[in-house]
Write a structure and sequence with these properties.
The complex is a heterodimer of chains A (about 400) and B (about 70). With about 400 residues, chain A is an alpha/beta fold. Chain A is built from twelve helices and 13 strands. Chain A has helices at about 5-20, 20-25, 60-65, 105-120, 150-160, 180-190, 215-225, 240-245, 255-260, 265-305, 305-350, 350-355; strands at about 25-35, 45-50, 55-60, 75-85, 90-100, 140-145, 165-170, 195-200, 230-235, 250, 360, 380-385, 390-395. In chain A, the strands form three sheets. In chain A, strands 1-2-3-5-4 form a five-stranded mixed β-barrel. Chain A is rod-shaped. Chain A starts with 5 loop residues before the first helix and ends with a strand. Chain B has about 70 residues and is mostly helical. Chain B has two helices and one strand; from the N terminus they run ααβ. In chain B, helix 1 packs antiparallel against helix 2. The chains are: A alpha/beta (about 400), B mainly alpha (about 70). The interface between A and B is large, with 39 and 36 residues.
Chain lengths: ~400, ~70
Amino acid sequence: MQTFSVEEITSHIHNLFDADPTLNSVWVQGEVSNLTKASSGHWYFTIKDTKAQLRCVMFRNAAQYVQVDVKSGDEILVHGRVNVYDARGEYQLYADQVEPIGGVGDLYRQFEELKAKLDAEGLFDADRKQAIPAFPKQIGIVTSPTAAAYHDMQNVLRRRFPMVEVILSPTLVQGNQAPPQIVNAIQRLNDYTNVDTIIVSRGGGSIEDLWCFNDESVARAIAASRIPIISGVGHEIDFTIADFVADLRAPTPSSAAELATPNRDDLLIDLDRRTADLKAIFTSNLSVTQNNLSRTQQRLKYATPQNTIAQAQQQLNNQQTQLQRVIRQQMNRLNDRLSARINTLHTANPASILARGYAIVTDGQGNIIKSANQVSTGDHLTVQLHEDQLNVRVDN
Amino acid sequence: MESIENLSYEFAYQQLETIIEQLESGELSLEKSVELYEQGQLLSAHCQKLLEDAELKIKQVDDTGEIR
């Protein structure tokens, strides 16, 4: 059997306390008793309720900051960690904060508790957040119609994006009646309208003034809204549960109105630019078409028979010239030859021979007499001279 | 397309963007280009008018769901 020393088992218990997250940061409510404020500045006391009690120690470095007057018999909230005081074998609360019940500390505790609870449920998860429409047609506003914040928002909307329609869902935004009214105002917009975005809003105030936006039912109504919600509660430094659960947190009501809408001036500038783009692209397309046409016309010009015809014409002209030249040459040659022949013919003409003194002798039948053998004495012959003829008789 | 005057700003602007994209594709006939360009001009003028002429309208929804 294993045995421990007292120190060993106490150290083991100490470790168990260390490892427990609840014990390391806890708010405890109870009645103060046996309060001793030592000269060292440390406080020693017990808090108790009807069933149990808890020893507490608050060291000087924490006790010196306590604002409230704490005395035995007071009901208070104590924050700190619970651990083991080894030397005495006792567990105790090492306090670092003390708050009176119903005070700001109490509200703060409620806030932290609700925040932790809803966070654990996943109500703050980024993937639950709905996108805020860029161009809302209608915006629902959950606020008090008499609040300055409401008028601030109208002014922002009028300046930035006046084509939007506002649907006010009026509610109290302060006091005990506020939470159920805010819940109702959010549900009304979901049930009866088709607004694109809801703004849940009120202006600045004390933490108590803003408290209705830390209400659990309000948080759940925001989470349940099918319409995206922008929260704009209080000033920049104020964070409410509504802010955590909303789809978008705006630091103020005016900035909620800004986040809900595009800016008209930006839109006009953008529209101008795109209209110029439209014109430029169209003009450029047109000039591309124009260029294509010119190029095609150019090609057509080269592709038409015009050119071929001109070429053929040129060829034809050349050939005609050539032909004419050849014909002329041929004619000349023929002419020359003809002249030669005419000369020859001329030379061969019997008439021209007769002219040189020769004569042609024929008999009565017209036969040319080339030999004396062809004729007999007494034949009548005809002697053809150049100018006339003789009728002669052969006598020998 | 329905009459341009009834289009919301968002829709009209989207149409304008679509037309610009189509023209940018550069694959349109001349007739289609001209038609789109003219339509783009009308859409742009409509958007401009919406932005410049708008006046904030305010209504209220009461417990019974009536919107006034």
